[in-house]
Amino acid sequence: MSGHGGGWANPGPAGLLALAIACFTFYAVLGGKVDHSCIPLLGCWLIGGALVQYTVAVIELKEGATTGGNVFLFFSAFFMLVGGIEFIFKYLVLANGWPAVDARIDGYAWCALWFGLWLWTPAYFKSPLILCLAVLALDVAVPIVALQDLQAIGHDYAGVAANFLGLAGLCGIYVASAIVLNTEYGKTILPMPGPIVKPKNVGA
């Protein structure tokens, strides 16, 4: 996370809340909590989240937060913006009886997100435990979405993906709230357990 120099405040909480919105809405869709007629509205929420996450990414990268900045950048573009536009487009295809599209291409794109997320996950072992838990939850959900879009597996695992997305969303909200409250009060209001891997002391 950024927020340690240059006069920029930490934008991470806004990005994490945007992620939580995406996770909660995907939880609702994949978990069968809402009807698929909601898809265009979901697309709108994701596009809104893309604007937030892109802003967060630019500030984080300016602050030198390589991991967080790049994760927010690709999430804003592909998970949020492309996802939102695609949901609206797919709904229009069905609603207007347009020629079917081969949506398996989405599965290949999601595979890139899956592989990248898995390979970048160890960088989060040095982050607060709850933020790392959010990433690990996404590590479970994203492959399931990718394999379903590829039609390599059925929708039997949609509930599993939904639950892990819900967990990721809850973790994101907690971390966002802890950053805001602990920063504003200058003390621990919401505890943030330490990382799995302790950062080395400078000069050690």
Question: Any overview of this molecule?
Answer:
With 204 residues, the chain is an all-alpha fold. Helices cover 69% and strands 0% of the residues. It has helices spanning 12-30, 39-62, 66-96, 104-120, 129-149, 158-185. The chain is globular and about 55 Å long.
Alpha-carbon distance between the termini? 23 Å
The H/E string reads HHHHHH
Report the sheet with the most strands, covering strand number, pairing sense and barrel closure. none
Low-confidence stretches: none
Rg over alpha carbons? 18 Å
Beta-strand segment tally: 0
- Shape, principal axes of CA atoms: globular
The overall pLDDT average reads 93
- Tally of DSSP helical segments: 6
Question: What portion of residues belong to β-strands?
Answer: under 5%
Proportion of helical residues: 55-70%
Which structural class fits the helix and strand makeup?
Answer: mainly alpha
Question: Top keywords for this entry?
Answer:
204 residues; mainly alpha
Gist of the model:
Helices cover 69% and strands 0% of the residues.
